[in-house]
TrEMBL record:
Signal peptide: none annotated. InterPro entries: Acetyltransf_C, Acetyltransf_C_sf, Hexapep, Hexapep_transf_CS, Lipid_A_LpxA, Trimer_LpxA-like_sf. The keyword Lipid metabolism applies. It catalyses: a (3R)-hydroxyacyl-[ACP] + UDP-N-acetyl-alpha-D-glucosamine = a UDP-3-O-[(3R)-3-hydroxyacyl]-N-acetyl-alpha-D-glucosamine + holo-[ACP]. It is found in: Cytoplasm. The lineage of its organism: Bacteria, Pseudomonadati, Pseudomonadota, Betaproteobacteria, Neisseriales. The keyword Transmembrane helix does not apply. Pathway: Glycolipid biosynthesis; lipid IV(A) biosynthesis; lipid IV(A) from (3R)-3-hydroxytetradecanoyl-[acyl-carrier-protein] and UDP-N-acetyl-alpha-D-glucosamine: step 1/6. This is Acyl-[acyl-carrier-protein]--UDP-N-acetylglucosamine O-acyltransferase.
Length: 258
């Protein structure tokens, strides 16, 4: 380990041999940090927090602090961060609550920019980009490959489906289906994330099917239940690109943005 002499690392913390910890950082007793990770200066990591491999945590982050929830009574809830994440300056990630699963979870290969807040019990997938000042209230779920524009705010218990995207300063109060782009306060749908799909190798035919699913949801005058049934029937014909809709419909309970 390369630990700056001004850092305070509790002897009970589990730190891999090659982890670097910068000046004035504080690591608590119930923290584990796996190999290849770099912790910058002035970082506080506390609570029951597990950080995986090859993560980069920049200065002034606070990871694993108690949830901002009046019901919290000191239970040993957790924060789990996967591998290969970049967490930029002034980010705050809280542990979970016993009223949910007891864990806030961050996946792998995420790019999380400065001043992002991830509240208690959030479930954040992998390959996600959270731009500066994106804010997740408690119990938010983000699917893989989501992109949230700067200053996006997401209401508690909202689900954002895989490959969805928001514009700058969006205020999201209801669920965003997979692939859908959204903008505004309150956020409304504005098409599909076709450019992101192209960059991830989706074929023109796959993009066409996703666009047709969007039209089924928003352009054909169908009820939500009718649109869901139509998309699920199409997905049942073996079109893998529609599976994110299936997963989204299985989770969504708040209603979708309109």
């Amino acid at each position: 380990m390369t630990i700056h002499p001004t850092a305070i690392v509790d002897p009970k913390a589990q730190i891999a041999d090659d982890v670097e910890i910068g000046a004035y950082s504080i690591i608590g007793p119930n923290v584990s940090i796996d190999s290849g990770s770099w912790i910058g200066p002035h970082v506080v990591i506390e609570g029951h927090t597990r950080i995986g491999k090859n993560n980069r945590v920049f200065q002034f982050c606070s990871l694993g602090a108690m949830p901002q929830d009046l019901k919290y009574a000191g239970e040993p809830t957790r924060l789990e961060i996967g591998d290969n994440n970049t967490i930029r300056e002034f980010c705050t990630f809280n542990t979970g609550t016993v009223q949910d699963g007891g864990v806030t979870r961050i996946g792998n290969d995420n790019w999380i920019m400065a001043y992002v807040h991830i509240a208690h019990d959030c479930q954040v997938g992998s390959h996600i980009i959270l731009a500066n000042n994106a804010t997740l209230a408690g119990h938010v779920h983000l699917g893989d490959w989501v992109f949230l524009g700067g200053f996006t705010s997401v209401h508690q218990f909202v689900i954002v489906g895989e490959h969805a995207m928001t514009a700058f300063a969006s205020a999201v109060a209801q669920d965003i289906p997979a692939y859908v782009t959204a903008h505004g306060n309150r956020a409304v749908p504005s098409g599909i994330n076709a450019e992101g799909m192209k960059r991830r190798g989706f074929t023109p035919e796959q993009i066409r099917r996703v666009r047709n699913a969007y039209k089924t949801l928003y352009r054909q005058g169908l009820s939500y239940d009718e649109a869901k049934a139509a998309i699920l029937a199409e997905a049942g014909e073996g079109h893998a690109e529609l599976e994110p809709f299936v997963r989204f419909f299985g989770q969504s309970a708040r209603g979708i943005i309109r």
